[in-house]
Specification:
heterodimer, A: 4-stranded mixed beta sheet, two-stranded antiparallel ribbon, 37% helix, elongated, B: 277 residues, alpha/beta, 10 helices, disordered C terminus
Chain lengths: 226, 277
């Protein structure tokens, strides 16, 4: 083994180690940047998807009742009337009122829904069943508890009832999926009765009247037939 | 470097395979106990097919026509401390966890109920988290029982307590007179309301600012329970000091025990109209 040969091998190895030592931080920086870029674009895509439904100023301004928490009576809802240009189309109208509801009242203490929750999709079936798909934040950020979860669902149901007469029942999905409960308490497997009054437009199916064994006078969203 | 990465990957995959096989082994070992509890729980969303496949145990529970059920009066209270295990429930700023407090509350409620002569069954004794259906299974296996699920809320006026009964459920019974598992509460709603109003009455005497009568909410835990069932929710985990909540425990325990004792005479097994000829 000649020393020259040894020298070249060791020299080559040293160069390789040095090159690796220089290249490694660059590579890791690139990987990190790529991950960040992907995250950003995901976030962007989500924001684009959930862009607030454009309110057309040409639509007639109507008094819109939004149900937020009461500041006088604990854990109850009160309607707040605001004038909004609302579409005549029930789906677009529902999206407009729900987005306004999600945006929250001036006094953030009176919010019923978490500020980071988004309405991802809204559908209205011919039988009057509305399907509202919210982002995961609705389930993860709503305060856990029967009273707070019921307040959240009721504010959605009663706001729809007051402003979109075509909606008779409401099904809530979280990120496109049916979930068992909102945040550990309130049942989301069924649909909530929103409006039992007959709609102005003829519906494909008569509203389901739940057989009741108790007479509940208070206005709470009650689950209907699954 | 690449070689190293590959080595790490190999080790990782080997480790994963090992873990998976262990999990498989565990699943095989424990499968008998799991399947037995699953047979009692027809899948949600298939209510019509649920009843015919119901196991004999469930038939006796969900159908209120069992001879035993009619003979026995109310003598058991099933206490359900909500959450537990990996699910802490509501969490307060001071490190207060709903799952821990409800367990302590349950101990006190249990003592008060036993003083009234009731037998008490708990859905969990320690820090475990049975599923909603498992908890209902515990309740539905009892004869002559009422069900009380205990909660601490995240919101609401601190120092108040509210009783909830399940919202109206459409009562559907098939030709056999069986009630689908996922609507087991339906025939008991009237009784639940009576029981809930009694407990809420005692609570409102003790805790000012609490409602006078029980409220309705679609509480998941109550829906699959085939017994008069209520949820008691105490406000709230936002108190600065845990002692503020602990101080409420004797009052809550007393209200539930007195409510159960007052409800005892009105406990009857409900009949389902049209379910049987």
């Amino acid at each position: 083994m000649t020393p020259a040969w040894k020298f070249w091998v060791i020299g080559g190895l040293v160069v390789a180690v040095l090159a690796a030592a220089i290249y490694f931080p660059i590579l890791s920086r690139r990987v990190r940047r790529a991950a960040r870029l992907q995250q950003q674009s995901e976030e962007q895509a989500r924001r684009e998807l959930a862009q607030p439904i454009a309110i057309n100023p040409g639509d007639p301004r109507v008094k819109t009742k939004l149900f937020w928490a009461s500041d006088t009576i604990d854990s109850t809802l009160v309607p707040v009337t605001v004038e909004l240009p609302l579409s005549k189309d029930p789906v677009l109208r529902s999206k407009q009122v729900l987005n306004t509801l999600l945006a929250g009242p001036v006094d953030t203490e009176l919010r019923t829904l978490p500020p980071d929750a988004l309405l991802l999709a809204f559908y209205l079936l011919p039988d009057g069943t509305a399907i509202a798909d919210f982002s995961e934040a609705l389930a993860t950020s709503v305060p856990s508890g029967i009273v707070s979860e019921q307040l959240a669902v009721n504010s959605i149901a009663r706001t729809l009832e007051a402003n979109v007469p075509q909606v008779q029942r409401l099904k809530i999905l979280i990120h496109g999926q049916e979930v068992e409960t909102l945040a550990g308490h309130l049942d989301l497997t069924g649909t909530f009765v929103v409006n039992t009054k007959p709609t102005p437009a003829p519906a494909a199916q008569a509203p389901v009247k739940p057989a009741s064994t108790t007479s509940s006078a208070d206005k709470t969203a009650t689950p209907a037939a699954r | 470097m690449l070689l190293q990465v590959r080595n790490i990957l190999q080790i990782k995959s080997l480790f994963l395979i090992g873990l998976l096989s262990l999990a498989l082994l565990a699943a095989v070992l424990f499968s008998p106990s799991q399947t037995s509890s699953q047979t009692q729980q027809p899948a949600a969303g298939t209510p019509t097919t649920a009843s015919p496949t119901a196991s004999p145990t469930q038939t006796g529970v969900a159908s209120p026509f069992g001879v035993q059920t009619q003979q026995a009066g109310l003598n058991i209270v099933v206490l359900d401390p909500a959450h537990g295990g990996t699910d802490p429930g509501a969490r307060g700023t001071g490190g207060i966890r709903e799952s821990e407090i409800v367990l302590d509350f349950a101990t006190q409620v249990r003592r008060a109920l036993e003083l009234q002569g009731f037998q008490v069954v708990q859905t969990r004794q320690g820090n475990e988290d049975p599923s909603f259906d498992d908890r209902s299974t515990t309740a539905n296996a009892q004869r002559g029982a009422v069900f009380v699920t205990l909660h601490i809320s995240s919101t609401g006026l601190p120092g108040t307590a509210r009783v909830y009964v399940n919202s109206d459920l459409p009562l559907v019974a098939d030709a056999n007179g069986l009630i689908p598992w996922d609507r087991a509460q339906a025939p008991f709603l009237g009784l639940s309301k009576t029981f809930g109003d009694l407990v809420q009455g005692f609570l409102s005497q003790r805790f000012k600012g609490s409602p006078e009568a029980a409220q309705t909410a679609s509480v998941r835990q109550l829906r699959t329970t085939a017994a008069p069932a209520i949820a008691v929710e105490i406000s709230s985990v936002t108190v600065e000091n845990r002692a503020d909540l602990d101080r409420m425990a004797p009052g809550v325990a007393d209200a539930i025990a007195r409510g159960a004792a007052a409800f005892k005479p009105s406990y009857v097994v409900p009949k389902i109209a049209g379910a049987l000829p």
